[in-house]
């Protein structure tokens, strides 16, 4: 029996910053951002969106009358959760009206949380094939105004239903993992922006990729050429390309070309949205599914997940018969096209107004935000959410 991703939903807020504008404001050559970093736009959250609302706006796309009653595991992967105790999964369960006979909790390990959730959900469904799991990765990536990491910000959420006989991607029963105590990216409890040693992080990411992909091939007695495409956690899209380039010499020229072509397919959405932290690998997967040049059902793709701190994991997925979905692609294209461009002053205002975490009572006007689920403020230290 195959187990894996049945459906994927994606949400990003309706505002963005064009990185050409940011380059001009920061006295940088735009090509550093467009080519050197590999990003064009970054999503900017309004005060009415946070990890919970973005997760709900993504999950509402994959919870249907058919699977609703089967969802008995809800895992919320995030690095930017809204409460130090209560999990985003409980808020999500309430907002979506999911059944109470469910296990619901949050996972944190930098950008790796959604993969931990996916692997746990896969084992759960393998043991209980009549049930399904909902796994979300939702984050706001914040490094700070004028910092080197600023160009690699972004926000959004991915939601996946995990089931037996999935329609999108069957996940390999095994994977290879590697972890070590690395101070490449972290966020102390009182910080609303991440601290990062960016160049060190890039090196560790590539080392973990090489370790885990080679360990996977050895353990599973499989060849690199068995993968028709490789997808990566993309905090910024150039980093995946750098990792991919490290293993190109290990395959022939035709295969190199194929991987490079599919890599371009896998970063279309990420280039427009920026960093989603936990959701980034799965946004890249979605981008590959929607833009693949030469993939067909039955093809195998490799997925590399990385969470600073650090945890790496490499696993494989087999494309299923409905891996391409023209409705899903149309909805994403429309969502990205509808977004409003902010100038740098507006972006800086949005940035300083977000987040609203340490206020006992505040009212947020959600009117300008067209999302279905919005954050409306805090009453007696309790966060308020609304579905429209
Ligand atoms: N045209 C084209 N490319 C240019 C360019 C230009 N005019 N100017 C610079 N570049 C290239 C550089 O050569 C470099 O490419 P390379 O990495 O392939 O060598 C790239 O642009 C970035 O330049 P660099 O000087 O290294 O940028 P930086 O020191 O400002 O920092 C990061 C870049 C990525 C390290 C920084 O944005 C960061 O720390 N981001 C956070 C990363 C992160 O989140 N890590 C943890 C999660 S995995």
CATH level 4 superfamily: Thiolase/Chalcone synthase
Sheet with the most strands? 9 strands, mixed
Number of domains: 1
Q: What is the CATH top level name?
A: Alpha Beta
SS summary, helix count: 12
Report the order of strands and helices: EEHHEHEHEHEEEEEHEHHHHEEHEHEEE
Q: Which structural class matches the secondary elements?
A: alpha+beta
Distance between the termini: 39 Å
Spatial order of strands in the largest sheet: 5-4-6-7-1-8-13-12-11
Task: Assign the CATH topology.
Answer: Peroxisomal Thiolase, Chain A, domain 1
Write down the Rg.
20 Å
Instruction: Indicate the proportion of strand residues.
Output: 25-35%
DSSP helix fraction? 25-40%
Strand segment tally: 17
Which term fits the overall shape? Answer: globular
Mean pLDDT: 98
List the ions, cofactors and other small molecules found in this model: coenzyme A
| Regions with little confidence, pLDDT below 50 for 5+ residues | none
Protein name: Hydroxymethylglutaryl-CoA synthase
InterPro entries: HMG_CoA_synt_C_dom, HMG_CoA_synth_N, HMG_CoA_synthase_prok, Thiolase-like
Domain Hydroxymethylglutaryl-coenzyme A synthase N-terminal: 2-165
GO molecular function, one term: hydroxymethylglutaryl-CoA synthase activity
């Amino acid at each position: 029996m195959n187990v894996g991703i049945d459906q994927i939903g994606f949400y990003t807020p309706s505002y963005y910053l064009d990185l050409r504008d940011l380059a001009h404001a920061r006295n940088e050559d735009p090509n550093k951002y467009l080519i050197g970093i590999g990003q064009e736009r970054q999503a900017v959250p309004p005060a009415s969106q946070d990890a919970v609302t973005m997760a709900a706006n993504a999950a509402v796309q994959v919870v249907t009358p058919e699977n609703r009653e089967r969802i008995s595991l809800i895992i919320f992967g995030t690095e930017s959760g809204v409460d130090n105790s209560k999990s985003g999964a409980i808020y999500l369960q309430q907002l979506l009206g999911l059944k109470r006979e469910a296990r619901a909790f949050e996972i944190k390990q930098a950008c790796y949380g959604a993969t931990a959730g996916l692997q746990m959900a896969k084992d759960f469904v393998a043991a209980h094939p009549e049930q399904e799991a909902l796994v979300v990765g939702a984050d706001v990536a914040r490094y700070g105004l004028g910092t080197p990491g600023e160009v690699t910000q972004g926000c959004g959420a991915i939601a996946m239903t995990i089931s037996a006989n999935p329609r999108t991607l069957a996940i390999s029963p095994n994977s290879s993992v590697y972890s070590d105590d690395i101070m490449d990216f972290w966020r102390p409890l009182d910080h609303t922006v991440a601290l990062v040693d960016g160049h060190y992080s890039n090196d560790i990411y590539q080392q973990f990729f090489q370790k885990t992909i080679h360990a996977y091939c050895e353990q599973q007695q499989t060849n690199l050429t068995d993968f028709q495409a490789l997808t990566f956690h993309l905090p910024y899209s150039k980093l995946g390309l750098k990792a991919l380039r490290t293993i190109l010499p290990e395959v022939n020229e035709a295969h190199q070309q194929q991987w490079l072509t599919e890599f371009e397919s896998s970063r279309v959405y990420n280039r427009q949205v920026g960093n989603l932290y936990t959701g980034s690998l799965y946004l890249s997967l979605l981008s590959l599914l929607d833009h693949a040049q030469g993939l067909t059902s039955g093809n195998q793709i490799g997925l590399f997940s990385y969470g600073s701190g650090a945890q790496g994991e490499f696993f494989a997925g087999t494309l299923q018969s409905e891996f391409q979905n023209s409705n899903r692609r149309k909805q994403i294209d429309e969502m990205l096209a509808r977004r409003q461009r902010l100038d740098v002053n507006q972006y800086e205002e949005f940035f300083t107004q977000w987040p609203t975490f340490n206020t006992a009572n505040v009212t947020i006007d959600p009117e300008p935000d067209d999302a279905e689920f919005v954050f409306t403020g805090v009453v007696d230290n309790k966060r308020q959410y609304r579905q429209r």
